[in-house]
Amino acid sequence: MKHVDVLIIGAGPAGSVCGSLLKQAGVDCLIVDRASFPRDKVCGGGLTVKAWRLLDMLLPGIKYEYRPITRMRCQFENDPVCEFQAEYAIRMTRRKDFDYALLQYYQAHGGELMKGSFERFEQQADGRVLVTLKSGEQISCRYLIAADGAGSLIRRQIHGAPKLHALFLEQYNEGETDNDVFVHFSSNYKPGVFYKFSSLGRDMYGFASLESNEDFPRHKAKFCETLTKFGVPLGQIRGAYIPLNTVPPTADNVILIGDAGGFANKLTGEGLYDAFKTAANAKRAIVEGIPFREANAEEFRKMEHQVKVFKFFFSPIGWRLIRWGMRYPKVIKWLFDAKMKRETFRA
To answer: Is the pTM of this model over 0.85?
Structure first.
């Protein structure tokens, strides 16, 4: 049986960043992932200023390719487009390459990666956690970190299936045709949005909606209809469900971070910033020997607040207020820039 201090399930951004931070702190850790990297996944791949600033601070010298986008456009129904230049660029990446860069950073700093699929875990009498992989191999650890994404099996073992999730559909069109971020709001797909990101070598079109699994065919048809409306040729469409209900920790030695814990922005779906931050808070909990609920208290409070913001935004009053605000690009720009810079991080 293999023994490690910290076992991380999932080598995505949350898992790789957490592993790198633990290695920097001299903590013995191992990442297990079933995928072969580099691998792709459904995600816009945009890093807001708060996300790339935090990443640069956590992983000094990290290198990755990105395309800076500052032109923002948003529209309600057929109203005039609200357009402005953001103060700081959104760094658009390809998740396949970006995630691999994070994993390589971890490995370059002595981190070990093992290919395998998680099956279950058990709490042991000695306070350790025993993890069994689908291969039958077992690993004993002092801390188990769930960084296995939206479909986290660790989360399901503890809390069952997610109670609230968003459906994200995406289509990529190769070739850089535009240089902006565009978001469209319509009562035709409320609560939800249609969006377009100009990314590295391609344009990415997406559709987000708060619905259940049974509604996938209907929303895929709605996405295709919206693509046609905006003159976008139909291509291969991929989808993913992202859990939006944040789950509380039930044991101090089993920590859920990133999408596995439901740490994604309830309004925008942005997950990379919260993946980095919960990864750093997990490292802090382990190194300082404090409960994750204490180290991550700010994130838990923020997630609760975002649920209220989501409900207000898509309420009749909030819907009308935001639509009215779109008439004044300078106001929207100020709100956007202020939000991007407001987040802080205590090392």
So the answer is: yes
Secondary structure (DSSP) of 120-182: EEEE-TTS-EEEEETTS-EEEEEEEEE---TT-HHHHHHH-S-SSEEEEEEEEEES----SEE
| Residue 6 CB contacts under 8 Å (≥ 6 apart), including other chains | 22, 27, 28, 29, 30, 141, 142, 143, 144, 145, 286
Instruction: Determine the straight-line distance between the first and last CA of the chain, rounded to whole angstroms.
Output: 35
Assess if residue 236 is contained within a domain: no
**What pLDDT, on a 0 to 100 scale, did the predictor assign at position 347?**
47
Model confidence pLDDT, tens digit, residues 231-240: 999 988 988 8
CATH number at residue 148: 3.50.50.60
What's the pLDDT score for residue 338?
84
Residues of the chain with pLDDT under 70: 42, 176, 211-214, 341-347
Reported as a single tens digit per residue, the pLDDT across 114-151 is 999 999 999 999 999 999 999 999 999 999 999 999 88
Residue 136 tokens, joined: 């039958």
Q: How many CB atoms lie within 10 A of CB 161?
A: 10
Range of the domain at 123: 2-67+93-161+246-311
Say if residues 106 and 23 touch (Cβ distance below 8 Å).
yes
Domain count, the chain: 1
Q: Say if CB 11 and CB 107 are below 8 A apart.
A: no
Position 227 in a domain: no
Burial-class residue 33 by CB neighbours within 10 Å (0-12, 13-18, 19+): buried
